[in-house]
Amino acid sequence: MNNGKDLKSIQGYTFLDEPPLGKGSFGTVYSIINNSTNYPCVAKAISKKFISDRGLAEQMRNEMTIHKKLKHKNIVKYLDQFSTNTEIFIILEKCNSETLEKICQNYNTIFKKQLSLKVIQHFLIQISAAISFIHSKGIAHRDLKLENIMLKFEDEIPLDKDNKHGFFYYNNEFLQDSQKFEDIMMTSVVKIIDLGFAKELDPQGCAKSFLGTPAYLAPEVLKKKSSEVTPEFAYSSKVDTWSIGIITFQILTGDVPFTINKNINTFNELYKLHKQGLYSLQGDLFVTYELLDYINALLQFNENDRINIDDMVEHPFLKKKIEKQNVIQVNKLIKDNSKELVLKTIERRNFLGTEKSFGFGKGDRISYLDKDIFTNDKMIDEVFGIHSKITIFEREEDGFIVISTKKENTG
Question: How far is it, in rounded angstroms, from Cα 303 to Cα 245?
Fold first, then answer.
């Protein structure tokens, strides 16, 4: 089957006379209509020969068995399946959108700025809820990435004719106003798709297979391809929380935190980068302390140090309303002449709670270029919170200032 015209109707479904929605190594996705309900859905068509040649029969059965169990508003619905002499068709809920990967890429290209923290939070609340539900069933997704996340809207969102910009063409009007676009995004429902690598974990909550997308793989998975692998190699569902950390970083910055040149030692080199533990945020980004803590809690090299799924869904970044006065530019947190804030996968920093957890403490040195933010008490309170009293000391001519902190006397 090469296009929608080759198969008009089968097993109670009509294939629409339009180009496929997508095509990948595992199959092709078509728009279809359920004849009895007139409900729009999609058919994922996989060649039986492809399945046979690559020994994927068990994986296909596993995917369908698991997908049937996962009924959640943030997971694309499994509806049905049927087959012909040459292909297997999996019928799924239709999402009237693009993948989150394409949406973020187009946003960065058109508006040349980061998504607002409210939109980022909106996406992550739903992603976290879906993965929490999957884990509650003793299952790990194992291939979480922006490409496997779609959005759905209650109202049909018309696309531009050539579909180059997706939602950026709305009601016959090109969305040049980023705020209008973000308002539309805030009405979206996240849908996790593609459960081809999902697995029910063993009684110890572990899995052992090496699979997934390299940029999103957790260190404990990459370890299998490293010189440090041991016969006891195994990993837990926390591989998904690492992937959510990568996704969060990517939505915020437009890129993944760890990249290497493709070569024969790709996996081993990527594992070394994770173990080295350094990644950074550019100074022009806007964040909250809760978001910094969320990313750092997820991207921990040692899975025992990584935040668990229950704490993740209750994290302040997902629970606390984004207020303008709590948003700060990263360059205000940089303590040297660098243009980026460096974080570590081997260091769990606490960005929450007290003035010191904000990254500032007595004797800390802050770039003198930022001294204007400390011109009055009101600005001090906006940056550090009213619970602290900040005293600024300028240190000679070395380009830095030194701060001292003490609890405000409320008595």
Answer: 13
CA distances from 379 to 325, 373, 389, 395 (A): 10, 6, 12, 21
Domain locations in the chain? 9-93, 100-344, 356-407
Distance, in Å, from the CA atom of 196 to the CA atom of 67, rounded to the nearest integer, reads: 9
Q: How far is CA 170 from CA 82, 110, 158, 177, 371, in A?
A: 35, 14, 6, 11, 44
Give the 3-state secondary structure of residue 95.
coil
Q: So what's the pLDDT on residue 3?
A: 45
- For residue 130, give both structure tokens: 């879906």
Mean model confidence pLDDT for the chain? 78
DSSP tag of 34: E
Contact 359, 314 (CB under 8 A): no
Instruction: State the CATH class of domain 100-344.
Output: mainly alpha
Nearest 5°: the CA angle 121, 125, 128 is 130
Statement: the pTM of the whole predicted model exceeds 0.85: no
How many Cα atoms are found within 13 Å in the side-chain-facing hemisphere of 251?
26
CA atoms within 13 A on the CB side of 100: 30
CATH superfamily of 9-93: Phosphorylase Kinase; domain 1 (3.30.200.20)
CA dist 131 and 238 (Å) reads 10
Per-residue pLDDT tens over the stretch 65-75: 999 999 999 99
Distance CA 36, CA 389 (A): 68
Sign of the torsion angle spanned by Cα atoms 300, 303, 306, 309: positive
Task: Map residue 303 onto helix, strand or coil.
Answer: coil
The rounded percent of the chain whose pLDDT value lies above 70 is: 73
Distance CA 290, CA 115 (A): 16
Q: What confidence category does residue 181 fall into, taking pLDDT thresholds of 50, 70 and 90? A: confident
Handedness of CA 250, 236, 311, 75 (dihedral sign): positive
Q: How far apart are CA 142 and CA 55, in angstroms?
A: 20
Residue 232: band (very low, low, confident or very high) from pLDDT cuts 50, 70, 90? low
Q: Token pair for residue 379? A: 């600005």
Q: Which CA distances in Å does 30 have to 7, 60, 81, 351?
A: 11, 18, 14, 46
Q: Is the pLDDT of residue 371 over 60?
A: no
Q: State both tokens at 304.
A: 């025992």
**Fold match between 9-93 and 100-344?**
no
